Structure formats: structure tokens, C-alpha cells
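Your task:
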Amino acid sequence: MGALLFTAYSFTNSAAPVKAKKAITAERPAPAVGTNIGDVAPEISMAGVDGKIIKLSSLRGKMVLIDFWASWCGPCRRENPNVVSAYEKYKKAKFKTAKGFDIFSVSLDKSADAWKAAIAKDGLVWKNHVSDLMFWDNAAAKAYGVNSIPMSFLIDEKGVIVGKNLRGLDLHTKIDGYVKSL
């Protein structure tokens, strides 16, 4: 009986005119906002050293390292030379899809003077330094689930997290994967 049905099905379909099939395109859902790799990084909108608001989203189109740190944090200060090195190495690099590289530093300081002094002393020359001077109650740190520093998130040109907690050579190796030429 199975063969008979198959034959009848083949016979009836072979006599029917062939219709063009519509192309089926499945759109990928937009990534969720969150702090996991593959998520869109939550927006950060906070005062810079001059008191003016700086938004993370203002850097869309670039690869961005979101760096959580503080002037009072020894491990952060020891990692700063590596972050400076990455900035110098990649700020003029040509990326496969991004239009440059930048750093968005979020300080968990309580003192504006200590924060600004550490920026100067450590040579953190990029422009995007923000803090609400709320220590561990920093709004961005809470949104990102930061419970120890230094902590970092690498985001692509679309704001999607592509790396987390990258330090030392691991930071450079991860960014290298997105570079077309230095």
C-alpha cells in the first residue's frame, strides 16, 4: 500500500504545473541586552571627568574595551600599562568590520581627585573616562554584574560582547582576531 500511495502521489504531482517556490528567509532575532558573550552590552551613560555625560553608544561602529577599574585598586593599576599598550597598538588599526578601537573606562572611585590623578599618572590618554563616584554602588558596575576589578568587556562595532575579563596577552590576542591590518 505504501508503494501505491507513493506512485499515486508521484503521478499527481508530476502532472501539476511547477510553481516557483518562494524564498524563505529567516531573520535572526536581535541579541538580548545582557552581559554574556553574544549579548548587546547594556548602555552606560555617566559623567566624564569634566562632568559632561558620555554614552557608551556614542562609540558604536568601533571595537570598544569597557574597562572597570579604580585608582585604589592595585591589580587595576598594574593592568593599566597593558590597557595603555592595547590602546596605542590598536587605535589606528584597520579592522575587518569596525571603524577603529577605543576604550571606555568606568571608575569605581569615590574621590574625583584620586580618579583624575590616577588617569594622569597611568597615562590613560583616551577620552572616555566615566564615574558616578559611588564606589561599589556604581550604576554601570551593578548593571554589568561587576563584583571584582579589574573587569573588562570587549564589544564589537554593533555593541555585542565578544570577550570578557581579558587581561595581559589575552586582550591583545582577542583584539588581533578582529584586525585587518595594524
In short: The chain is about 30% helix and 20% strand.
